[in-house]
Each structure stands twice: as C-alpha cells, then as structure tokens.
Amino acid sequence: MATYTIVFDLRESPHAEGQTDTGYYPVVANAPVVHSDQLYEQMSHGCTLTPADAKAFLSALRDAMIHHLSMGRRVEIEGLGTFSVTLKSDSPILYSDDKQTARHLSVGSINYRPKRALLNALSDIQFRRARLTNPHAARLTDEQIVRRLRHYLAASRERLLTTTHFVEATGYSRSRAYRELPGLVRRGILIKMGTPHSPYYRLSLSHRVTLHTAPANVRFSHKTIHALPRCAPARYIP
User: Fold this and answer.
1) Which of 156, 137, 175, 171 shows the shortest CA–CA distance to 223?
2) Of 114, 120, 172, 210, which is most buried with the most CB atoms under 10 A?
3) How would residue 234 be classed by pLDDT, with cut points 50, 70 and 90?
4) How many angstroms separate the first and last alpha carbons of the chain?
5) Which residues, in sequence order, are CB contacts of 12 under 8 Å at separation 6+?
6) How far apart are CA 232 and CA 219, in angstroms?
C-alpha cells in the first residue's frame, strides 16, 4: 500500500490583545486544488465508469442531495459521511413566539460529518514540515509593522489604510488584523478615523515620513492599490 505525505506549516494560535502567546497549530501548506475533471478521470480507472459516466453520476447525486436537503433531511452517503443544513436569520430573533421569524430564515451552510471508516483510511499518513515557511506567520514588531505600512503607502501614493490594506501590507489574516489594530491605536502608532462600521487608519504624526517611491522589493497588487480611499497625494505628510 502506498504511503502518502502531507506537507504542513505552523500558524500562531489566536489570542486576545495583551494575553501571552498560546502556541501554534498545524495547517496543510500550499494545498493544490484537485478539479472535477481530474476526479472523473481517476474514478474511471477504478471502476467501469467512463469519465463522462462519472460526471453524470456526480451530477445526479448532487441533484438528489439538493432535493432531500431542501426538505431539511440529513443525507447519509455510505463510506463518506452525513450532510445536513444549518439555518441563519437575517435579523435578530428576540421573541420565541414571533410569527414573522420564518420570513427571515435561510440556509446558512451545509455541515459535513465524515464516517469513521473514512477518517481511519487517512490514519496511515506521514507529515513533513514545509521547507519554506510563510514569512508572515510570525508576529511582527511594531517597528516592522510601521516599516511595512510606510512602504505600502509609498507604493499607493495615498495616506489612508483600511483593514484590507493592513492585511495585505502585513500579511496577517483578517481575524488577526482585527486583534492587532486596536493595540496599534492604543500605542499611538495608528490613528483611527471613519465610523465604527467603516473605520480607516492613518499613521500617527511621529511615524510619518516623506515617501516618494517604494523599495524595489515591495510589490502590491494593482487592484488593491486602486481600491484605497482616494485622497490628494502629497510629497510630504505633515
């Protein structure tokens, strides 16, 4: 039997601002996507189905699952697991006897619970640490964050930062950015502006410098740069 290897990396465990680090958790590194056509071809080598037959079979299976899930049923597929829907409401439900509740409901997601046999089939796997780890996975110092934000603003020729721009400049995840930004504001590195629902930030006076061009090794996407809030560019930020 073939032995398979999963390449993994480590990410810092989430923790609240001010709390000590809680360690790391493993993630699959650079997982490639296996597309439908590849699955159809592989299935055709393991049974009498042709790739076209496999495509038709999975299409019919999808339609059957939609039929039963739409009626709130759980769909159990032998050897794979059980699928079921979860519900969400587009407004808070304040009263249990509210007769208008149904009008605000929709399907939120589909839960999948794998069969134990499927999990057991994945037990004989080796793991190898990725050679090139994500350079942004580690915590950045305040000085490193300021330097990256300066380079980002220089590349965009703008002054303001949204959460999305902060994520691209630092390499942090969005959830981590939400945890880090309040601390940067409290430490006087960033100034928070805008509204609670649509905040944006600018570097504080003591951290602004004259920036004419970004360093040659700093690159940001064309889409992100042009998505920045539009302000008149300045050669010196007072």
Assistant:
1) 156
2) 172
3) very low
4) 67
5) 21, 23, 24, 137, 138, 139, 176
6) 22
